[in-house]
Amino acid sequence: MLEIKEMRVAYGAIKALKGISFSVNAGEIVTLIGANGAGKSTTLKTISGLLRPQSGSIIFEGREISTAPSYEIVSLGISQVPEGRRIFPRQSVLENLELGAYQRKDYKGIKEDIQQVFSYFPRLAERQNQLAGTLSGGEQQMLAIGRGLMSRPKLMLLDEPSMGLAPLLVQDIFRIIKEINANGATILLVEQNANMALSIAKKAYVLETGKIVLSGSAEELSRNEQVRKAYLGG
Amino acid sequence: MSEFLQQIINGLSLGSIYALIALGYTMVYGIIQLINFAHGDIYMVGAFTGYFAILAGLPFPLVLLLAMVCPAILGMFIERVAYRPLRYSPRITALITAIGISLFLENLGILVLSPDPRPFPQVFTNPPFQLGQVTVSIPQVLTFGVALALMVGLTFFIRYTKTGKAMRALAQDLEAAQLMGVNVDSIISVTFMIGSALAGAAGVMVGILIPRIEPLMGIMPGLKAFVAAVVGGIGSIPGAMLGGMLMGLVETLTTGFISSTWRDAIAFGLLIVILLFKPSGILGKNVREKV
Ligand SMILES: Nc1ncnc2c1ncn2[C@@H]1O[C@H](COP(=O)(O)OP(=O)(O)OP(=O)(O)O)[C@@H](O)[C@H]1O
Ligand SMILES: [Mg+2]
Fold first, then answer.
1. Which of A148, B122, B239, B242 has CB atoms 3.0–4.6 Å from B233's, for a disulfide?
2. Burial of A10 (0-12, 13-18, 19+ CB in 10 A)
3. Is the pLDDT of residue B286 over 60?
4. Please, what is the average pLDDT of chain A?
5. pLDDT of residue B208
């Protein structure tokens, strides 16, 4: 479904990605793990068209998208739940969800999908008219995920959805990510919480300072000595 | 007392002009953090469009429409050719470009239209009417009415339409808005279009209110409207309306009760005092909300 080949990205003189290649098959949950500054967010931003690769290609469903504008990438079926939630604080929960469906015109379908989001996250339903900026951190993360679902993505990019959440909430969020995947969306999950990520993913890649240093099935990697040392706390 | 009321009426119509111009400053700033110094000259273009439309014998509603459409197109054009290529350059570059565009429009105006002031043809020749002890002229009522209608329309547009919601989203978080599939270029274009159309409307209304126009007429009102936008809270739409009205009122009240030579000094001074107490403006956000 998504294939990345030799992608290089730089911020001015800083080389953030030094030629990475990986792929995501339809229906899978794939995780990209790595320490701070490894280049995980850079990878997702480049897929979404917020950054342009210097070289390499990004092929989504057979189409080269590395030069496509971000709105076109959304319309092709890729949505991103960015790091740090990035909800629109001065707009209501409902408006945030509507913005997620910005390119859609099937108003009935949008209404149904809002109900679907509320069934994943009942707390959002109770707070639908509240300004998003007044939600708790956990609720904001729920909103960010819900908003990401509103474009009916084929592929959903999630950037550290567990960041800053209490352990119980992290479990909830991961359970819902699995549910979203079971309902048909393919998932590319970026995480520092390697334990949780490896437990729900099929395939995993390990990113270190702009390079993929390890890859394999999530099961393999969670048994790998190096990975256990570096990311799973022994 | 009646003198006071009289100055309030005068202030509200003058304030309407400032408010309409201030809206364009604040909307553009809210979205791309650019102080569009050419905005006052867009207002001048609106006034001249109105001038020629009236001379051509068009009815007033059509005059107003044209005086909004032409500046709107010009505003979008300027954004497209001058500001868009600099979107990711340092802010100072765009700012200097804006000053350049402003000087260009002013000098082009002098060259093409001659620097001499022209009387603005009067459309509404009905005599002013008495409201108690206060005299109200038709242009005053009309200016206030047109401004009010446009501001109500803008408020609805920003609050309830899809494009309006996208504009607000963009003002809060450009990257996140892009991730929603918002086409940033087209929303920025619409912002320039609306802001310039409002300034154009202000240009015609000022011609009717104070019937004298010239190519440099945009400089002072542009500056005052900018200050009004800052005082209201730059980036805030209700703030620009409030700031504009306040600017008009302070100006006419100083003229009426203190002295007209001190008008601008006192108006600006008072606004500086407001900013000392509320640096982010009356309705401005204290901190930019960024997660
Ligand atoms: N806007 C930027 N300008 C310059 N350098 C940047 C920018 N954004 C990221 N970088 C650099 O690129 C590298 C990769 O950053 P990136 O945000 O992709 O890391 P990450 O893996 O997502 O880290 P984290 O887990 O902390 O979110 C880092 O060295 C970072 O300093
Ligand atoms: Mg990151």
1. B239
2. middle
3. no
4. 94
5. 94
Residue A62: burial class (beta carbons within 10 Å; 0-12, 13-18, 19+): exposed
Residues of A in contact with B173 (CB under 8 A): 86, 88
Ion ligand 2 contact residues with beta carbon within 5 A: A 40-41, 83
Tokens coding A55: 């070289």
- ipTM of this complex: 0.93
Which pLDDT tens digit goes with each residue over A6-46?
999 999 999 999 999 999 999 999 999 998 999 999 999 99
- Report domain extents, chain B: 19-217
Q: What are phi and psi of B146, to 5 degrees?
A: -65, -45
Q: Flag whether the pTM goes above 0.80.
A: yes
Q: Looking up tokens 């242009």, which residue turns up?
A: B139
Chain Cα centroid distance, residue B155: 15
Q: Give the whole-angstrom CA distance, residue B225 versus residue A141.
A: 40
Q: Which residue, B136, B33, B49, B37, is CA-closest to B87?
A: B33
d(CA A118, CA A98): 13
Task: List ligand 1's pocket residues with C-beta within 6 A.
Answer: A 11, 14, 16, 34, 36-42, 83, 192
Which structure tokens are listed for B111? 């060259």
What element of type H or E holds A9? strand A2-11
User: Which listed ligand is nearest to A35 at the C-alpha?
Assistant: 1
The count of other CB atoms within 10 Å of the CB of residue B35 is 17
Q: What is the rounded distance in angstroms from the CA atom of residue A125 to the CA atom of residue B260? A: 58
Residue whose CA is at the smallest distance from ligand 1 atom 25:
A36
Distance from CA of A219 to the nearest CA of B (A): 32
Q: How far is CA A128 from CA A112, A152, B234, in A?
A: 15, 20, 28
Ligand nearest to the backbone CA of A206: 1
